[in-house]
Amino acid sequence: MPTFNERTLLERLARGGKQVRTLSEDTNALVKSILRNLQKILNARQGHAPAQLDFGIPAPSEITTNFPESIPLMQRIIRDSIEKYEPRLTSVNVVHVESEDDVLSLRFQITAKLALGQQHAPVLFDTLVDGSGHIKLQG
Question: Class of the 35-138 domain?
Fold first, then answer.
């Protein structure tokens, strides 16, 4: 049984060469790969990927025009994008984290479970949408 390993298909292709296959999963490497993929998903803008026009999210500036009422919409968009384009996660939940220190950015906490093999370990990512609309994630 080949492991799903810690990398996406594109990461495996880019690395090239023969890979040693194992029956175990490196959870740490898996979470790092998921984090990199989430960065790509959440910073891509819908309509810019010709092969999949709904890949990514709308520009945060378009979503947050009715701030703070738009926060639940942003949470739903983030959750739906993750559920659609990151199949290694299940039970995705996105919660807004209020920050009085930085009023020009939005913070969200993403919690989910790994969906590979026997593991259903919980994972947590902190998300920051800065004033320019760039989304940064930390695992």
Answer: alpha beta
- Which of 44-48, 61-65, 81-85, 133-137 has the weakest average pLDDT? 61-65
pTM of the model: 0.76
Instruction: Answer yes or no: is pLDDT of 3 > 60.
Output: no
pLDDT tier, 17 (very low <50, low <70, confident <90, very high otherwise): low
Pick from 3, 8, 55, 44: which is nearest to 26 by CA? 3
Contact between 85 and 55 (Cβ < 8 Å): yes
Tokens linked to 138? 């930390």
The span from the CA of 81 to the CA of 14, in Å, is 24
Give residue 55's Cα distance to chain centre. Answer: 12
Structural domain spans, the chain: 35-138
Predicted local confidence at residue 11, as pLDDT: 66
CA angle 17, 118, 31 (to 5 degrees): 55
**Greatest distance between any 2 Cα atoms in the chain:** 51
Q: Are 33 and 9 in contact (CB under 8 A)?
A: no
